[in-house]
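Hi support team,

I submitted a single chain yesterday and got back a structure, but I'm not sure I'm reading the token output correctly. Could someone confirm the output below corresponds to the sequence I sent? I've pasted both exactly as they appear in my results page.

Thanks,
R.
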Amino acid sequence: MKAIKLFLPVVSLLFMAALSSCNREEGSRLLLGSDDAVKRSVVSEDGPRDGQKHRSSSNFSTKGMNKGKILWTCESDDITFDVYIDKTGSDDVFATSLFNTAITDFIESDKLYIANPANAKGDFTITYEIIEENAGYVYITSAASHLDGQDHRSSQNFNLGDSNHYLVQCPDSVSFTIEQDVTGSDKVVYENVKNGSIIQNHLTSNLYISDPTGAKSAFMVTFVPYLYTGRDWMTQLSDDLYLYELSIPGTHDSGTGEYVSAGISKCQNFSIREQLLDGIRYFDIRVDEELDIRHGSTDCKIDFSDVWNDFTSYLNEHPGEVIIMQLNSHDDDDSLADPLNSYFTNSVMWTKNYIPKLGEVRGKVVLFKRIRDTSYGVNVRSVWPDDGVETNGNNGINTFYIEDRYFDTGEAIHDTAEKKKVVSEAINDACKNLDNGKMYIIFNSVAGRGTHTPWDYAWGGLGIDPEMNPSLNNIFNGVDTSYVQRPLRIGTILLDFYNKHGNDDPHHLVERIINYNFSTPFINI
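Hi R., thanks for writing in. Yes, this is the structure output for that exact sequence:
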């Protein structure tokens, strides 16, 4: 279940290619729509007028327009211009270095004019349009690359409001950094911001967009006040708890959610980012030598850098949380140590060889390695069962109970009754032996085969009985009856399609796993 669902307003950006007609009156262009309360336009020459140092248009007015932000549009992304205020004596500057789709605060004046245009190839039209302000929304427009004379900056300064969190809305292809304009060296506040990012608002003033990537033209960013209902569940737990003492929701073949089509390779509905927002903290990541994410022969259309960026962006926003990444190779012969070395040595990656306490690794990605050619990380490769169960795997430092019965066999329908039995045994062993120091890794997933997909095994298909996710719910019901102690360690449970079709899991499996960590439910179900 998603923490919150927002329906965002769409701001239409109407671009005027050219004036269909324009009249001359006393040597200057006549304003179009000069009485319109929402949208008006002015024509500018391509440089300062004769005898003028800055002015390139007649005066124009915003009087009588609705209040809100002003969206400025013109015929080309290459054109920049300023807006001045005509005053007796020395004119005032209202805005500088505006460009196509720039946004400014509202000003009420009938003495505005365009000044200092650059890169225009003749007279051009500027439309100024009111964007009605929604309560607390913040709008800013960024150029597709850094502004002239700037190494990084691509927007004007802007301020955020009073909301503790903001949801970012921008084109899907775009990512960018947010910096704060300070005396001396500017400060990077958020990195790898993109559509759907949730940022914590701890620096509200003199911010600007920098280093955009993936933009073909200027683009709008909307910051929407976000009521974050909280899946920061690890943040609430004691620093003294070892990871093996927790109940952790995870996903099997975590990278298959975003771009993989329905079939035997797809195991998730949601992206890595969305899984994190839902409270998932254990990720099954499989890479090839090019660092593409794969499930068997299927290319998941994302690579390791995409996963890493989602991980680090999330931890930057939620520094009290911890991510466990079980890293496996697409093919056991793949050589991955060299291409992954820069990640292994990154300060966000925790690569020691023992299972840590929460307090040691908040804000970090803890590496559980199944790849063969690196000494980094907690070694689970040496204790991993081959399509089965290892109840007492010891890697020389830590002990593991690993259930990974996925059925690498050719029968038409896999035996989900057997699978339910081994899952139930593992969970009950975790509940009965709370102080045994074992890390329980329990897969509730079954491999797709022939006409039956992982979704069929998770939620039901022809001839499949029982279905694994409803069966897990029944196992939890039994746990609730047999073990009244709370908090209760049930292990790390890896799921396929934990959210069913998208947001309609009737059993709230992820929420139930999280709630076992608390004496009273952390999430209301």
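A quick pointer for reading it: Residues 189 and 503 are 32 Å apart (CA to CA). Let us know if anything else looks off.

Best,
Support desk
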